Backbone:
């Protein structure tokens, strides 16, 4: 498993943890305090640690890594928009055409959207690495 | 309908050059060992630039390394 794969696995775990924590906290402490669950996304800042020894060894990223990253971004964008459209339709069906949105729903939607994007990107990158090589 | 494949002779060429390792070839052409492994296994079709670099590293014309079938 190369550094990029380990990084993708780590990001997938962080994004999944953030989404699960948020979903678990909402019924317990309410929407506002459940936003703390997205704090798990802060772990993704540690991603550079995966490349420390690779830099010393030589080439860090080549054309195959860049191609896989581009394809993973395409998959993640598609997944993000499908999820966003489904969430919007579900909210409309649930609440109807009228109603109010809690202020905490806006950051929750933003964080959840980023988590979905990150999770889809990481899973797609892992699948593409598995398909096109060791 | 099967897609045309790009065959390569990297394994044989490495063997003929004193068992050159994948790491040595990767360093010579500026990519990771995993990419050389993927190209050699036919799981990744390299860019034209990388294909020329690999041929250059072996000191052979590109058509002796890669073949379109």
Residues:
């Amino acid at each position: 498993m190369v550094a990029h794969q380990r990084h993708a696995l780590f990001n997938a775990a962080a994004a999944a943890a953030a989404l699960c924590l948020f979903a678990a906290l909402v019924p317990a402490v309410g929407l506002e305090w459940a936003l703390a669950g997205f704090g798990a996304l802060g772990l993704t800042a540690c991603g550079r640690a995966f490349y420390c020894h690779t830099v010393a060894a030589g080439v860090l990223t080549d054309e195959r890594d860049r191609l896989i990253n581009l394809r993973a971004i395409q998959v993640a964008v598609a997944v993000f928009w499908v999820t966003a459209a489904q969430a919007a339709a579900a909210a409309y069906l649930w609440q109807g055409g009228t109603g109010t949105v809690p202020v905490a729903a806006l950051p929750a939607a933003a964080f959840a959207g980023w988590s979905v994007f990150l999770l889809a990107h990481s899973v797609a990158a892992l699948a593409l690495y598995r398909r096109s090589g060791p | 309908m099967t897609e045309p494949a790009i065959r390569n002779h990297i394994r044989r060429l490495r063997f003929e050059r004193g068992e050159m390792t994948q790491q040595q070839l990767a360093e010579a052409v500026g990519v990771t060992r995993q990419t050389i492994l993927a190209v050699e296994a036919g799981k990744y079709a390299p860019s034209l630039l990388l294909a020329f670099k690999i041929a250059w590293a072996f000191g052979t014309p590109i058509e002796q390394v890669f073949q379109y079938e």
Q: What stands out?
A: Chain B touches chain A through 16 residues (CB under 8 Å).
